[in-house]
């Protein structure tokens, strides 16, 4: 028989074993719990150092946004700036007991669990605002029970560490609202284009309805579901006592007006300029600082002028494309597939859903989010015809299918979507001759020569079609929008570039690097080097005007004579024979520098370059801002070396700037989130003065590559070695104000009486120069008013013929005119400033001889000269001298003939 002490000992051991097992299980459970949920749990105190990724904003000179750089598009908003009714909307919609619970709402969890069990799936969640903040800020978005428990633990700790206001601040600035908008500050701008402090109750309710399903309930993507969600939020606010019935009803009756604040059009307009900004900032500050640092970048761009520049470039390139002809339809629908093709075109235009034209049914879970009971089989309706029309009117060019051609009426019917039709007329399509750049354009006289049934082409919407123009299409459906007036559109293949700067400050006002940034990101304003043709000639004439003779007087004046005559040049090293020709294939003979530049006479520029020395010409171009390689040959005078538009434009700006250097600037300041300046006054391109010291010496001799042949007779080279006058005191003073004024006046003559005469339509003092390469692959116009310098280039990326007669005056100058018309609109008419000194004198001269005008001079002009260099002889006296010399030559010839006759009478 077992003793009582033995039995007690056995039970004690068993009890101890059980306690040990329980303790071990507890410790194991604790360890497992720690391992699963607490081991690497984020420190909630790190939330105090909340530094989310912030978008860097790029602003124009007036503070308007033109671009953004970001990984998450967000802007922080202090809690104090969020209106109370907006806070009430979020609390009512997302967590009505937010101010009562301690991070976890256990009654809501139980209620949601029961509803999910009854529904057989998840139809309701129970996350508090604190939990949502934790999930977005400290945890991953994965849907697991482990993550949910970790979230609840952190939510409790966050509630113990932070106030409710601090939690709301973190939540409102962290959550995602759709369309790339993180945080309420960015959401207010994206949907309503306003700051958070100005949000109305109705707008706040709209935003409060988004975090549950931002894509599904976006008012942009699905306005009907978004409206139902907004009403649900307002109903919840009424139920929670956040608003009274009258306020509720008023807000229900006033749906918010959406204003897309993402600036997609302005961003596209300024894309080439903003890309220059991005490249610079990435190089200087690094990608992370730019994408997440919340910087404010203040630039020099003027958004209004940028819009004008893009519009001018588009109009110019599209007009050039029209002059070359129509490339034909993009494709043609096979016979019997017209309706199917219309459906495909509608989908490509974004005017219908590609598959069914309807949204998917509203699920039970989504109905729960809306706060309503599920409605069996309910779907969101297809877009109404009026909505389709509105979307089409907001679009640019759209694809269309030609469904009928009426030769008698001269019209073609076009379908943009099944319920959206339009009419294109012969009057708007006469330009569409078969593509032939080698011939001059002509108008097509029959609509059938342009369109055939089944053609798929691009069209732009002008307006609803005039009455009677498409009665058949209008009668097809009384519910369909009226037929539209369409215009045939063809995207140009040619590219172009425009750069405009403020002369006084050097600020870049507008920059266009191509037809479309989405098509090509290559910036032709700053990165391309193309032959400038005659646009290089001002450097030749500027060199001549800055040369001085041994007496200290200018070696050349605008009235100096050069000879436009055939010349043959031979390359001494290769034996290559070069005979330059003028564009018009005619020779003017003796001609003044002023007229030679105005008429863009090639042979005159070659002769002048030969006389002054090509090395001096290159040195002068370098001094003004040309950094591209320049060959020391006479062909350089005709612009045979590639130069960027930036180089030419900043160099030309020196002339109206009184001879002072113009350093283009594109960044004013870069500010950190606290408003401290990090970078200021950044030039576009490398600073000119730094590159000047690195430029190697170039020969002044004009015959190192090409030399006049013996039949030309040669030229006097004594003066060619004279260096251009070097202003000494001011490093930014590149020439005297008087010299700069003379060159400006000569370039003004290009507009008044030369190849740039089309610009006279602006009715202002202007100067500039056209440029066209021999093969008409590049067309230029670079010019200026007293305030603004602008350069335009047009051409293909590959060296290719632009088209018959497509010179700088025809292809580039119209773009320049359209832009400058907008740039100068509203500005007072100003003339170029005359230097404030006695260094200039004016004289009336004979246009042909460059001498003082006589009573019998047929054409005269009032011409400025540097004092002491003005002509002293009159044109009449010169003509008398010429006649006397001619008579002397004739008498000498007669005397010689008589003497020979006496010596040899037979």
- The CATH C-level class name of the largest domain: Alpha Beta
Number of strands: 25
Shape: elongated
CATH topology of the largest domain: Beta-lactamase
Total tally of structural domains: 4
Report the CATH architecture of the largest domain: 3-Layer(aba) Sandwich
Strand content: 5-15%
Q: Calculate the mean pLDDT score and round it.
A: 82
- What count of helical segments does DSSP give? 27
Determine the CATH superfamily of the largest domain. DD-peptidase/beta-lactamase superfamily
Low-confidence stretches: 30-39, 353-361, 372-382, 467-478, 690-722
Q: Main sheet: which strands, in order across?
A: 2-1-5-18-19
Cα-to-Cα separation, first versus last residue: 182 Å
CA gyration radius, whole angstroms: 39 Å
Structural class: alpha+beta
Largest sheet: 5 strands, mixed
Helix content: 25-40%
Helix-strand blueprint:
Elements: H1 4-38, E1 56-59, E2 65-69, E3 73-74, H2 84-94, H3 106-119, H4 129-137, H5 145-161, H6 164-174, E4 181-182, H7 183-192, H8 201-208, H9 223-239, H10 245-252, H11 264-269, H12 271-285, H13 287-292, E5 296-299, H14 303-324, E6 331-332, H15 338-348, H16 364-370, H17 385-394, E7 398-406, E8 411-417, E9 420-425, E10 455-464, H18 471-476, E11 484-489, E12 495-502, E13 508-512, H19 537-546, E14 561-564, E15 569-571, E16 577-578, E17 589-592, H20 593-598, H21 602-612, H22 614-624, H23 645-652, E18 665-671, E19 677-683, H24 688-692, E20 706-708, H25 737-753, E21 767-772, E22 778-784, E23 788-795, H26 808-824, E24 840-846, E25 860-866, H27 875-903
Parallel strand pairs: 1-5, 3-4, 9-11
Antiparallel strand pairs: 1-2, 5-18, 6-10, 7-8, 7-10, 8-9, 10-11, 12-13, 12-23, 14-17, 15-16, 15-20, 18-19, 21-22, 22-23, 24-25
Helix pairs in contact: 2-8, 2-9, 4-5, 4-6, 8-9, 9-10, 14-26, 19-21, 19-22, 19-25, 21-22
